[in-house]
Amino acid sequence: MSIKGHEYTVQNGMNRSKVGKTLYSLSTILTALIVSQLIRYLTWFESVPTLISTVILTIILFYIIYYSFNNWVWKLKPISKLLKLPNISGAWSCYGKSDHENFNWHGNVQITQSWDKIRIVLTTEQSSSESILAAITYDDIRGYKLVYNYENKPNSLDDTSLRTHIGFVDLNISAENNSASGNYYNVSGRKTSGKITWNKK
């Protein structure tokens, strides 16, 4: 898994293609304004072919705008609300209760999230898991839901009670975006399930 994470689906949020087109349009408008000012104040700039100057400047501005949007701008609360995409990046405390075995467990979750990628890593005393696929959905009544598929690996190969396995998490995110609760399901390699709760640190 890349340290930058993987792509994730956003359902019922703003269309990603529409956002890309909006950012490109913004870079084109800014290019027109900047080129007009350069021609006005820099006499030598008039000798630069318009096609070359506008194409190069548009590419540069689009890269800057998209990079800023992808990493920071979308996380601003008014924009995040407009996009219908919560910022869940950061550290979370995790508490779980198995439905099949009589024990509770706890761990820590670290999430890195940009506009187009996400990485969810959960660590416990015995194992660690990392997301493979993920989706965030929005519902007008129920709010946000995070669903992701993970691969879990034991910290020690000598641990006979755990094996590498695949699982799923289905979480409802609170309106305040500081807690989440739901269920986990382990399938291949460890057929168990249970309840899970996250609290933002």
Characteristics of this structure?
201 residues; 10 strands; alpha+beta; single chain; 8-stranded antiparallel β-barrel
Give an overview in words:
With 201 residues, the chain is α+β, with helices and mostly antiparallel strands. Helices cover 27% and strands 40% of the residues. The chain has an eight-stranded antiparallel barrel. A hairpin with a 3-residue loop joins strand 6 and strand 7 (143-154). Helix 1 (16-41) crosses helix 2 (50-71). The longest helix is centred in the first third of the chain and has 26 residues, at 16-41. It is elongated. The two termini are 25 Å apart.
Summarize the structure.
Helix content is 27%, strand content 40%.
Cα shape: elongated
Gyration radius from CA atoms, angstroms: 22 Å
**Sequence of strands across the biggest β-sheet:** 3-4-5-6-7-8-9-10
Portion in strands: 35-45%
N to C succession of SSEs:
EEHHHEEEEEEEE
Helical amount = 25-40%
Distance between the termini: 25 Å
Please tally the helical runs, counting DSSP H or I stretches of 4 or more residues: 3
Overall strand count: 10
Low-confidence stretches: none
Mean pLDDT: 91
Largest sheet: 8 strands, antiparallel, barrel
Structural class: alpha+beta
